[in-house]
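Ticket 4471: requesting a sanity check on a complex prediction with 3'-deoxy-guanosine-5'-triphosphate. Repro inputs:
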Amino acid sequence: MPFSLKGYVPKREFSSSNVTLPTAPGAHTTACAASIRIRLRQEPIERLAGDLGTHPGTENTVRVDLMKIMLVEDSAVEQRQIGDYLKAWNLEFTVVSDGAEAWSLLQSPEPPGLVLLDWMLPGLDGIELCRRIRTLGGNGNYIYTVMLTAKDRKSHLLMAMAAGADDYLAKPVDPSELRARLLVGKRILELQQSLRFAATHDFLTKLFNREEILGALKREIARGERERQPVTVILADLDEFKKVNDCLGHAAGDSVLKEVAERLISDLREYDFVGRYGGEEFLMILPNCSVGTGARRAEEIRCLVSNTPITTTFAKVPVTVSMGVTSTECEGAVTVESLLQQADRALYAAKAGGRNRVEAFGLREVIGIGSSLARSRRRDTNAAKFRRKVMSQGSPRRQETQA
Ligand code: GH3
Ligand code: MG
Ligand code: MG
Ligand code: MG
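Returned structure tokens:
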């Protein structure tokens, strides 16, 4: 996410503090009443020797802090012992001594990836907490749960697994066994994250896919309503893109799509969203942005896409884009469908008006892009001439045909 450069998952930062774990029985009561957050230098996981070390992260994503660990344990002795192991391995962790408090932290927007969970706890016990953890996951993040307990009968093991635990570790905790459990947890979390990324992102451009960008739009409309802030939507469509494929081949077309995606991302703010809406269509969402500002932003993006030709294996391809802009401020019921319909109509007007231009739904005069339209048309003519020239010279298909 939180890409969120929208389209990705945001990187989290943790507060840095040196926290002394409680040393005497009872001392933890105060120290752990609030969760203890520990950040161990700058490189929390990466410096772990080998096995628990780096995980690759997917291109264009920002890693979620998969191995941020929460230790839920009410015994000061166990807290210190397990805490010492985690510290020695340079892992980032939080200690909580009460089941109810752990539950409230687990429901936060950025919960830990892995929970080491004691069975017997004040407030909620570990089994109940485990059951509740399995009701979470609406945001797609899996929480890997390892139950820690002195109970060692097979029936206990079964009970923990049935409640939703992923693994089980007998107390007193042996460091090698703990490390082994963490390794498995890390592997499962990485796998889960890569599956989630694949399910929510476009394979080629690594932007949000259609379903995900529409989900983001729905959420942003609701947020805008709550906060009484406008949300602007930009629908962008590459001009005459079919010709790129026809003349230079599909691979060149793919390179163009990837580069355009990069250019779109580079011009957006951290809290904007961009996704691949269809073949050569992109949808951008600009929260807290009026339609006038949105149209000016679209114009900036249009220039960024068209100003420099895109280098592909076969040729440099001049690319232009047309855009339709609308916002929740515009007339009409504000729904995902109505906004998309308005953006689509504005985009259609941009295409009909000669391409390589921005049209805003119902606000053409107000946003004052009239002067840029003349420039757009001139550029469009130049770009079209250039494109024709490139296509006629650089086309591998044409060369194949001629041969
Ligand atoms: P217009 O200016 O009217 O939008 O013209 P256009 O050629 O861009 O539009 P049209 O809808 O005729 O063609 C869109 C093309 O986009 C056709 C399709 O082959 C191509 N396309 C869609 N998805 C991909 C893709 O993933 N890779 C490549 N290389 N081409 C794609
Ligand atoms: Mg206990
Ligand atoms: Mg299209
Ligand atoms: Mg097109």
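Notes from triage: The longest strand covers residues 231-238. Leaving this open until the requester confirms.
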